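Data deposition worksheet. Section B asks for the primary sequence of the deposited chain exactly as it was used as input, without tags or linkers unless they were present during the calculation. Section C holds the resulting structure in token form. Section D is free text for depositor observations; keep each observation to a single sentence. Incomplete worksheets are returned to the depositor.
Section A, Depositor: J.P.
Section B:
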Amino acid sequence: MKYFVTDDQRESTAYHEFYKGRWDEKSFWRKESIYLFDDELVNHKGFYHALCQAVPGYDPYEMVEVSAENWKAVRECIPEDDTKSIELYEEADAWAKDVLQEHGCFTILGL
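Section C:
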């Protein structure tokens, strides 16, 4: 993966965890999660702003559930000329499709 890492690739705790399903309010750094380094989020404004627009209550320092509808709306909010943010979204989308089908949502655990 170019933008996200797996748990064994993390080098610090400065990551946004994309957690399968509804968060259990106690588990962190799960092997089945994918992780976005904070600098990647900051450097891809189109993706960040799309999350803010499409996911009610999104805050990079909190946790928020993302439904299939929200996730689809994220892509629709990324400007077409922001190819890097689209690429980042598509990388996560490969993971999210299966998760959304199985769990109906995923949770982003912020910093």
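Section D:
The longest strand covers residues 15-20.
The chain has a mean pLDDT of 97.
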